[in-house]
Amino acid sequence: MLSAIGLDERQEAVYRALVAAGAAELSDLARRLALPEADTERALRRLEQQGLVAQSSSRAGRWVAAPPGVALGALLTQQRHELEQAELASAVLAEEYRAEAAEPAVHDLVEVVTGASAVAHRFHQLQLGATSEVCALVTGKPIAVTGMENESEERAAMRGVSYRVVVERDVLSLPSGIVELSAALSRDEQCRVVDRVPTKLVVADAALAMVPLTGRGTEPTALVIHASGLLESLMGLFEAVWRDAMPLRLGGSGFSEESGPGADPTDLEILSLLLAGLTDASVAKQLDLGLRTVQRRVKGLMELTGVTTRLQLGWHAYERGWVARAPR
């Protein structure tokens, strides 16, 4: 929580423990935190530099915590000032850039990023710089960053950036596919499924896009595309795929408020995956259920809705609001 002011986990733990105790000997503090004394002392020295702790003047080897309201307040004030200065510098640089690029050359509209590390770094930058919405087309074969490694997505979502994501059906069969999508849905991201997406794609604020440019056996390469007719075309491509994709809902995404009597969240998880194109066996595997259980629950949904075929069940699912093209 205090990483924003430059403290790592160990330093924060030491400071919190010292605040709780008010004052403590180095050996006592190390024992309480189950840390080596040398590591504890290094953390205390760093905290001392930040003005968060001090050595007792009356007792050697004893450390005292500075009042958090005063010490942390000073650090936050300093950081706010530094951020304001950085914002001013950024505004000046942006104005200089606009003045020089009133008529940007073609090569200024497209960047070529080469290498797995560089591609991953630019991918994270794109999301962290978004302010309103990120749109993405996702395949089952990551180039530089897997879904589990995409911490930027969670951080952007926590800032209020909305996500619309279309995944290929193959993603649902990956070992971590359902876990990643469940996490995304729990952050109120909108996820849809299609058989195939035409390309990997991520677009931030409809102003900056990234697409792969990689052949077999070559180093990962991507294009970063700035505002242009090409970017508008890519955004149009995303919207077309989004319109035709099937909404996906999994556990914890709000079934209970819309399911109605007789259908529980597990029933509708099963229905969502079936409508996304998975077989009964694949659904059973993904949800860690028995095949007979899946089939029994589907039969129960058919009886609940009074239909005789799964096609009719899908139609009734839309009618009852269990699945929808747009958020309810």
TrEMBL record:
InterPro entries attached to this UniProt entry: Sig_transdc_resp-reg_C-effctor (IPR016032), TrmB-like (IPR051797), Tscrpt_reg_LuxR_C (IPR000792), Tscrpt_reg_TrmB_N (IPR002831), WH-like_DNA-bd_sf (IPR036388), WH_DNA-bd_sf (IPR036390)
Entries under SMART domains matching the protein: HTH_LUXR
HTH luxR-type domain span: 260-317
Stretch forming the signal peptide: none
Pfam annotation, one family: TrmB
Protein name per the record: Helix-turn-helix domain-containing protein
Origin species: Streptomyces atroolivaceus
Lineage: Bacteria, Bacillati, Actinomycetota, Actinomycetes, Kitasatosporales
